[in-house]
Design a protein that fits this description.
InterPro entries: NAD(P)-bd_dom_sf, SDR_fam. The chain has 9 helices and 8 strands. The chain has helices spanning 24-35, 47-55, 71-84, 111-131, 166-188, 214-227, 231-234, 236-243, 277-291, and strands spanning 15-19, 39-44, 60-65, 90-93, 138-142, 195-199, 252-255, 265-267.
């Protein structure tokens, strides 16, 4: 059977926080969750846009300011969410930037790595204790097929200070999203019922492609009708990862079409590099050092 939005269970009584939810994939994810009865928080950088997005959604929707390029903002957003929501059922790390010219975040991190990975790493760590006691709670992080591009975590130049390739930097950030999910799931295994799951939208027609290099815009616009899908379809893997009762921690969902570019959500696999446990552990330690955020779950120590 093909999984569709009609299979999203009722979400009454659940609280869902969706980052980057004022447009595109995040908006469609938030809209469907709210329509199924969840209380949804749109965690967005531009609160004016967030309020306009909230007005287009039927249901219990609120807006929380969150700028993932600033650890100060991430901490303020986490404090705001903690003050208004004593529990969180779903944390959906959806926001992201792609193929940007080299820029840095407020804290000096390369923009794509800092936003896509470190910002979400910090937010998750600051909110995780609100999810741990909640049965069926999940952390869903949105990656990309781009995680296969020059698939490596460049520990010798994480911030791309020596040389910069916008596609490779994006690939590193999306690979980091997957490695974070897999390592988080191992740490969650002995703590309550929270699961860490990943998803990717295939090739979706959203504002995320606005920074692609000019030389690629012609070919992309020509190929778009053949390989892209609307945000309504691109959000389905995330929604399945967040709501399907059969989903297990550590899984990865994406479209079932050719090369996972479009289609209905199914269980998929990521690149061989993404499953390297040693690199996952090292990335986790580096991310803790860079963000100053420590998680309330530690890696289990095997018995001798």
């Amino acid at each position: 059977m093909k999984w569709t939005e009609q299979q999203i269970p009722r979400q009454d009584g659940r609280v869902a926080v969706v980052t980057g939810a004022n447009t595109g994939l995040g908006f469609e994810t938030a809209r469907r969750l709210a329509e199924r009865g969840a209380a949804v928080v749109l965690a967005v950088r531009d609160t004016a846009k967030g309020k306009r997005a909230a007005a287009r959604i039927n249901g219990d929707v609120s807006v929380q300011e969150l700028d993932l390029t600033s650890l100060e903002s991430v901490r303020a957003a986490a404090a705001g969410l903690r003050a208004t929501h004593p529990r969180i059922d779903l944390l959906i790390n959806n926001a992201g930037v792609m193929y940007t010219p080299r820029q840095t975040t407020h804290d000096g991190f390369e923009l794509q790595f800092g936003t896509n990975h470190l910002g979400h790493f910090a937010l998750t760590g600051l909110l995780l204790d609100l999810l741990l006691p909640v049965p069926g709670s999940r952390v869903v992080t949105v990656s990309s097929t781009g995680h296969r591009i020059r698939a490596a975590i460049h520990f010798d130049d994480l911030q791309w200070e020596r040389s910069y390739g916008r596609a490779a930097a994006y690939g590193q950030s999306k690979l980091a999203n997957l490695m974070f999910t897999y390592e988080l799931q191992r740490r969650l295994a002995g703590h309550g019922t929270t699961a860490a799951v990943a998803a990717h939208p295939g090739v979706s027609n959203t504002e995320l492609v606005r920074n692609i290099p000019a030389v690629l815009r012609g070919p992309v616009s020509w190929l778009a009708p053949l390989i892209t899908q609307p945000a309504t379809a691109g959000a389905l893997p995330t929604l399945r990862a967040a709501t399907d009762p059969s989903v297990l921690g550590g899984q990865y969902y994406g479209p079932d079409g050719l090369a996972e570019t479009r289609g209905h959500p199914k269980l998929v696999t990521s690149s061989p590099e993404s499953y390297d446990v040693t690199v996952q552990e090292r990335l986790w330690a580096v991310s803790e050092d860079l963000t100053g955020v420590r998680f309330p779950v530690g890696r289990a120590v095997a018995a001798a």
